[in-house]
Write a structure and sequence with these properties.
200 residues, alpha/beta, Rossmann fold, seven-stranded mixed sheet, 7 strands
């Protein structure tokens, strides 16, 4: 799916997005964000959507939230409440300098973007050495057959998500990132919470 198609899809999704995802995503979001190191000062949220992560962010941090969809970001404004800077931009071409963030959140975004490997590469680029990357999304595991999920992939892509992304395939392209925690998060482990650290 192209970013133009994503824009159209999320214009439709935006009014119902919260109702669709809050139920299964609230607890994993909170659990992931609770792992943000106390020393973190600059946090980037890639794929911020309607701002469902914002209530869980720590105090006294500089928070930047990015999304490609204007329709989604408009709904994030009340949750930002002056504590989060909102940026409309492409996750595959981040408008930030290298190593500028202590922590990056990627919740329900890698299975949405057209090229998840590019989005992960960009997240790694703007994460400082020693920084933390927190991911929550649906992934297949290496070698997992999951015929129904693979069969649904073309249909789900038309609905602005994918069901056939293997995270380990993405990670092999990023040797500077170490996976330090991998927890099942929802739907029998299809959704996972991942914590990664960038090597110094």
């Amino acid at each position: 799916m192209s970013y133009r198609s994503l824009q159209r899809a999320y214009q439709i999704w935006a009014p119902i997005y919260d109702r669709a995802v809050v139920g299964f995503s609230a607890a994993p979001r909170a659990a992931n964000i609770a792992q943000i190191p106390a020393a973190a000062r600059k946090i980037l949220i890639i794929g911020a959507g309607t701002g469902l992560d914002f209530p869980y962010l720590p105090a006294n941090t500089l928070n930047v939230a990015l999304d490609f969809s204007a329709a989604m970001l408009s709904r994030a404004v009340p949750r930002a409440a002056g504590q989060v800077q909102l940026v409309q931009a492409d996750a595959e071409h981040l408008p930030f300098l290298d190593g500028g963030f202590d922590v990056i959140l990627m919740h329900l975004i890698l299975a949405v973007v057209p090229h998840p490997s590019r989005a992960l590469a960009e997240a790694s680029r703007v994460l400082r050495p020693g920084g933390t990357l927190l991911i929550f999304d649906k992934f297949l595991r290496p070698g997992q057959r999951a015929p129904l999920r693979r069969l649904l992939a073309p249909l789900s892509a038309s609905l602005a998500t994918r069901t056939d992304v293997v995270f380990e395939d993405l990670l092999t392209q990023r040797p500077e990132l170490d996976l330090v925690e991998d927890q099942p998060a929802a739907l029998g482990g299809w959704f996972r919470r991942l914590r990664l650290e960038k090597r110094v």
